[in-house]
Amino acid sequence: DPQARALPLLFKRWATKKAGGSTDNGKDSKPKYLGLKKSGGEKVIPGNIIVRQRGTRFHPGDFVGMGRDRTIYALIEGTVRFEMNKKTQRKWIHVDPANPPPLHPLFLK
């Protein structure tokens, strides 16, 4: 029957491919410039940033402040000093004053 043989030709499916979505490979975040900004023994003035960090890798010690984003900065003029507590493995940052206040006479003996 010629009509029965022609029927499958009417319902022929063609090879199709949907368009692919765009890739996210080209995106990148801007650099954050984290890390140590001053080394041990370096002179600092109030407001100088000593470390920019994510989380508290370094903890603020004497005469040092910590910002909301965990940035550690100097509160006074002086010299940066790093210290590590052997027991807790915690790293502390201090600023030793450039002009330390005079000692009380009781402590001079």
TrEMBL record:
PROSITE patterns: RIBOSOMAL_L27
SUPFAM superfamilies: Ribosomal L27 protein-like
Pfam families on file: Ribosomal_L27
GO cellular component: ribosome
Molecular-function GO term, any one: structural constituent of ribosome
Chain positions covered by the region annotation Disordered: 18-37
InterPro entries per the UniProt record, alphabetical: Ribosomal_bL27, Ribosomal_bL27_CS
Listed GO biological process terms: translation
Protein name, per record: 50S ribosomal protein L27
Record organism: Selaginella moellendorffii
UniProt lineage: Eukaryota, Viridiplantae, Streptophyta, Embryophyta, Tracheophyta
